[in-house]
Amino acid sequence: MNRKELLGEVDRIVIKVGTSSITKGCSTTSTSFMDSVARQVKALKDEGKEILIVTSGAIGIGLKTMNVIPKPNEIPIKQAAASVGQSILMQKWNESFDRYGLITAQILLTMDIYSDRESTLNLNNTIDSLLEHKVVPIFNENDAVCIKEIGPVFGDNDTLSAVIASRTDADLLLILSDVDGLYDKNPKLYEDAKFIPTVESISREVMDMAGDPTTNVGVGGMKTKIKAAIICRDAGCRMIIASSDVSDIILKTVGGEDFGTVFVSDNLLTKKRRWLKSACSHGIIDIDEGAVEAISNHQSLLPIGIKGVEGLFNRGDVVSIVCGEKTIAKGIPNYNSDEIFRIRGLHSEKIEEVLGYKTHDDVFMTENMVIF
Ligand code: GLU
Description:
Layout lengths: L2 H5 L4 E6 L1 H5 L7 H16 L3 E6 L2 H9 L8 H24 L5 E6 L1 H5 L1 H16 L3 E6 L15 H11 L4 E6 L4 E2 L11 E2 L1 E2 L4 H6 L12 H13 L3 E6 L5 H6 L6 E3 L7 H8 L5 E4 L1 H8 L9 E5 L8 E5 L2 E6 L5 H7 L7 H5 L13 E3 L1
Parallel strand pairs: 1-2, 1-5, 2-4, 3-4, 5-9, 8-10, 11-13
Antiparallel strand pairs: 6-7, 9-10, 11-12, 13-14, 14-15
Helix pairs in contact: 3-5, 4-5, 8-10
The structure holds glutamic acid.
């Protein structure tokens, strides 16, 4: 299977950006890196994808700004640094996304929030509403109020990003890091370390490949990334670890190019299609062989390919799409049953003449169908 096939369909993507990527070679933040993330996110949003960002960097930027070097277990200064750094970090993200005409939202989370079901549900409503309004949600741990999140043992943004990907039913978690993926041993220490492009299952052997944190500025290392991969796998979400140094890495990995390590999941359908597959049908649309071929080749379903309609349904209801005896797909139509009955077998130019209006050329759009 090639990378595109391994990745499957990708609609909702969580992108985690590590501290070392954001601060690379700069006294505080790397504007060119943050701008390039914003540019690539804009391109993906223009394709209709939903993007959520998890950003690290608050503590690192805060410490640099305050010009202090904390002792290893000195928590209060890191919390103080997080509150200094977080507002600078968000200001920088705002500026970068603004250059591409995108609005950002800041969401700071602690582990207590993920553990409370009601808060999680409310949070998901907030996220859905932000995405509907084309806002880019940007998450970080609320380091200033929670010490657990700052220790090297428990909290880290790799785990945070995996939990967000899982709770929001994301299709892909992309972790951008200072490493280009998983190696069988630490490539910074061993010259003969072998790169692993694909992880099909997270075995003990894979877990043993993870060493300790790769840098001093971020919290996570390969261990936390493998832990993130397990959370993603359990949620049916794919995960990629890739280097933020590669230009256009977001577009390249999402486009199925062979960069980084992909952690495969059995579930290769988008959230919407997973839901469509299991939803009840309100009616049946019978289509001809030509239409079967078209929709199997990722084209929309036009009225000309429709032979018959059964049942009463509205736009937005789920209906089954059959060819004779065989169920081919399920989908959400742009027209109701009566309208489809009247325009069946016609060229799309005739829709307005017959109905007196036309909202769409197609009866089902590709993104609103799941093919069996
Ligand atoms: N939340 C931390 C920060 O913004 C980073 C944690 C991590 O590096 O994973 O500095």
